[in-house]
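ok trying this again, last paste got cut off
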Amino acid sequence: MNHSALINVMVKAARRAGRSLKRDLGEIENLQVSLKGPANFVSAADRRAEEMLYDDLTKARPGYGFLGEEGGTREGSDKSNTWIVDPLDGTTNFLHGIPQFAISIGLEREGTVVAGVIYNPANDELYIAERGKGAFLNDTRLRVAGRKKLDECVIACGLPHIGRGDHEQSRREMTEMQNRVAGLRRFGAASLDLAFVAAGRLDGYWERNLKPWDIAAGLIMVREAGGIVSGIEGHDNALQTGHVVAGNEFVQSELVKILKPL
């Protein structure tokens, strides 16, 4: 199908970086890995992918700003547009050879994410969304799942690592959810969790303490697939708070009811 020039730029960049990551996945034992923090590793593949994305995106849109997981903020002359990029979401999965990771590219324009691309090079699944134009997986239109009973829903979540996050709060949340839903899943890549909600593979998803590059592309993916995304409060901006709750209108509302008091 035909995409806008903007989406074509994003897809081209994601695919080029994806080819590099896929090669590195096949030679995982040879990666030069340095420790960034407890249970949080960054690799040569991660840094290389970000530089490739930066080069391709800034070449196509020279004035745009760039916010990346590895390089942080790089100011552009155009203050209205900023790329928000995670070159390797699911780093721990990647470094263990688990094919659940993705390149995530969002474009924020005047405070609103207007386009997103999420690409998993391991299985060649490409998710795209553009404001007002819908969300797609490999050219198939996406819609969130329509379930209206929480006990029939499969929900994804995040779990805090050692030395990070509030483990007691996480355990309270898990206990509440286990008593109410059909199943819980923890896949380890926030962008793909949101993409799975958009695709109807998951009924909902929540996680706390994320960064903008983890969720920017996923936010518009879910919204363009007919879903609702918020922070834990229900009407707050997940991109600003770092806490995200997503699902169809019913599921998102029910998850907020459970999580907000905790």
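PB: full thing came through this time. The chain has eight helices and 15 strands.
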